[in-house]
Design a protein that fits this description.
The complex is a heterodimer of chains A (114) and B (112). With 114 residues, chain A is mostly beta strands. Helix content of chain A is 0%, strand content 51%. Chain B has no helices and eleven strands. The chains are: A mainly beta (114), B mainly beta (112).
């Protein structure tokens, strides 16, 4: 089975711009979660999508949004970028079945905001 | 308030010895715990997990211990190998469809 893929792997944007990141989950997985990792911080949960619906949301401003398509692929959008948005953005997929906790992560997208 | 804490940012261990990584949590509702390993430029990889109905789970060189009364878990790696050098994240979840809550990670360096 192919793993979780994320595109692009690296991105440089300017403050005030917007960015869209993409994630393709493992085949058959219906849940996609997004995390932000910054230096000195753990993985901070952004949101989770299951069957095209946002099922959980973390404590991030409304500039961070996402969506999921019928094929379970997901996109994350950040509008009006700030310097503090520079981070590694990780996508994780899981089956989404109740009480299935293991998530499988992609390699991440390294976003640099200048 | 951080619900999952890994108080040691880094740990150095000699090859062949035991590595012990610790994790504390504050939310008594957590009932499932996981450890992930992360190499640079890669996403975290699932390593081992434990349910709150157990106090120990073993998988090869990796053993996770859970002390519910102390709200503490630990990951033991025996024997440690240079390839184990990575950042280790502890994560916790409440049963049902809730997101994983991660600690900030511990960087393990295994010295040959």
């Amino acid at each position: 089975k192919a793993g979780v893929t994320q595109t692009p792997r690296y991105l440089i944007k300017t403050r005030g711009q917007q960015v869209t990141l993409s994630c393709s989950p493992i085949s058959g997985h219906r849940s996609v979660s997004w995390y932000q990792q910054t230096p000195g911080q753990g993985l901070q949960f952004l949101f989770e999508y299951f069957s095209e619906t946002q099922r959980n949301k973390g404590n991030f401003p409304g500039r961070f949004s996402g969506r999921q398509f019928s094929n379970s692929r997901s996109e994350m959008n950040v509008s009006t970028l700030e310097l503090g948005d520079s981070a590694l953005y990780l996508c994780a997929s899981s089956s989404g079945v109740l009480n299935t906790y293991e998530q499988y992560f992609g390699p991440g997208t390294r976003l640099t905001v200048t | 308030d951080q619900q999952v804490k890994q108080n040691s940012p880094s740990l150095s261990v000699q090859e062949g010895r035991i590595s012990i990584l610790n994790c504390d949590y504050t939310n008594s509702m957590f009932d499932y715990f996981l450890w992930y390993k992360k190499y640079p430029a890669e996403g975290p990889t699932f390593l081992i997990s434990i349910s709150s109905i157990k106090d120990k789970n073993e998988d090869g060189r990796f053993t996770v211990f859970l002390n519910k009364s102390a709200k503490h878990l630990s990951l033991h790696i025996v024997p440690s190998q240079p390839g184990d050098s990575a950042v280790y994240f502890c994560a916790a979840s409440v049963s049902g469809n809730t997101p994983l809550v991660f600690g900030k990670g511990t960087r393990l360096s295994v010295i040959a």
